[in-house]
């Protein structure tokens, strides 16, 4: 089994606008205006829109089906023993052509109780292009107060009650499930997350979505808003979510290890065998696995199946982000 170089997999007609940064990174043609996400090596579909979002392999099979047919080859025996045929990871490139609406994602317990799913949606961002983001409330917000903001779409009140972070290229940020957030216009991030598409929108006014119908995962707001973390987070607590900076290499977010692992490397490097998604964020070089060598360049995304074995990267100016599921 060989490393797989994957083309862009961008679901169409998302409710927020994308920019041109995914196309620029990948070196492809003009970008569609509402294709802001590239779902890399995805065995997860867009909520309520299967099979949209699922990666199609060069042989025409869905990656999800290929994994289910031979999970040990794709995921490794230790992973399968711990998680079954579940890849336990979704990686995206996200290009914010406009500020995203304020939203939150349910945690594992909420997703299991109300949606019958094994995963919530803790996520993390590795920032490629800088942006301002809103993350978590600065004070405790009451149940009725939050419901009132959502009902009246009082975006100013929501944003005024949130921490503001100016993220630089190279920053890495962990976003626990439940924490309200809004990624700012101009951001380009590698996003790691639990493998679901579960978003509870607190804001939708001005976006291409019917919030009354589609912002609450079909649960109704009385239930869905219970998934939102309304606690006031201190500035120090928010700062601790902001892990690595551009100068960092190796494990960028150790505190995320129970959900996913993310590493950044520059120059020649050996990678252990095991399922991984490789994003080449800059430079050029080569990838060697199983006795074969292939070229790497900026903007490529590569799926490394466990059966491909150890991988060697070469290239002095090569910069990569390596995304992996939680350690078994």
From TrEMBL:
GO molecular function term, any single one: isomerase activity
Residue stretches making up the Mannose-6-phosphate isomerase cupin domain: 275-322
Keyword S-adenosyl-L-methionine: no
Alphabetized UniProt keyword annotations: Isomerase, Metal-binding, Zinc
Record flagged with keyword Nucleus: no
Domain of life of the organism encoding this protein: Bacteria
Protein name: Phosphohexomutase
Organism for this UniProt entry: Cellulomonas xylanilytica
Gene name of the record: manA
């Amino acid at each position: 089994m060989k490393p797989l170089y994957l083309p862009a997999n961008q679901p169409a007609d998302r409710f927020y606008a994308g920019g041109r940064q995914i196309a620029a990174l990948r070196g492809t043609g003009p970008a569609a205006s509402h294709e802001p996400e590239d779902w890399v090596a995805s065995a997860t579909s867009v909520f309520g829109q299967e099979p949209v979002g699922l990666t199609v392999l060069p042989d025409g099979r869905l990656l999800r089906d290929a994994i289910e047919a031979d999970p040990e080859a794709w995921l490794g025996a230790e992973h399968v023993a711990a998680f079954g045929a579940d890849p336990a990871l979704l990686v995206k490139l996200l290009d914010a052509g406009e500020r995203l609406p304020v939203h939150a994602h349910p945690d594992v317990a909420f997703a299991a109780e109300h949606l019958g799913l094994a995963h919530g949606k803790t996520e993390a961002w590795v920032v490629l292009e800088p942006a301002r983001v809103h993350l978590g409330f600065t004070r405790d917000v009451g149940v009725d107060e939050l419901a009132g903001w959502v009902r009246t779409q009082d975006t100013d009140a929501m944003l005024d009650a949130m921490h503001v972070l100016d993220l630089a290229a190279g920053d890495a940020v962990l976003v626990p499930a439940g924490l309200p957030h809004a990624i700012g216009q101009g951001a380009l991030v590698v996003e790691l997350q639990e493998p679901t598409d579960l978003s509870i929108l607190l804001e939708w006014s001005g976006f291409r979505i019917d919030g009354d119908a589609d912002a609450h995962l079909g649960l109704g707001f009385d239930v869905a808003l219970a998934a939102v973390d309304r606690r006031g987070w201190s500035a120090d607590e928010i700062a601790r979510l902001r892990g690595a900076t551009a100068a960092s290499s190796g494990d960028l977010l150790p505190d995320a290890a129970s959900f996913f692992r993310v590493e950044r490397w520059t120059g020649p490097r050996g990678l252990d065998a095991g399922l991984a998604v490789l994003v080449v964020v800059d430079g050029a070089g080569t990838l060697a696995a199983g006795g074969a060598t292939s070229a790497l360049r900026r903007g490529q995304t590569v799926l490394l199946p466990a059966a491909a074995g150890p991988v060697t990267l070469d290239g002095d100016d090569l910069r990569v982000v390596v995304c992996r599921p939680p350690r078994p």
